[in-house]
């Protein structure tokens, strides 16, 4: 797990610095039912499929509808490519999650596209295709990756300037 976190920090150091320091990373197992609790990190490219919320299962439904209508675009092409890259039985790398506690929704901070591709390809078994690492904190709503609002974005901007 140490190697996974080191690679994440190299790739997304600014993201990691925003997470509350009062927690540890845990490897967790998810069930098929837990997949309904997953939210996508609110990046601009996902807003088109959000429909007011970032629950991954709902967004995947909207992506499937776009495919059915024959829509194209950079985002859909990437999702289609990722979908083909995940053959049955293949275990890709880790998916990183954050949340308040085990009862609230979990936000994917690394692995949105891979999870969406897995849900598009194999919705019943997507939870078995990844290793999930999660960081929980009662202070997670102060993090803009968990809750994007003026307060958390101001905090992020202050840290970015520093």
Low-confidence stretches: none
Shape: globular
Question: Average pLDDT across residues?
Answer: 76
The percentage of residues in β strands lies in 5-15%
Main sheet overview: 5 strands, mixed
Q: What gap, in angstroms, lies between the N and C termini?
A: 29 Å
Derived structural class: alpha/beta
The number of helical runs is 6
Percentage of residues in helical conformation: 40-55%
Rounded to an integer, what's the Rg over CA atoms?
A: 16 Å
Give the strand order, joined by hyphens, for the main sheet. Answer: 1-5-3-4-2
Got a strand count? 5
The run of helices and strands is HEEHHHEEHEH
For the record, the count of structural domains works out to 1
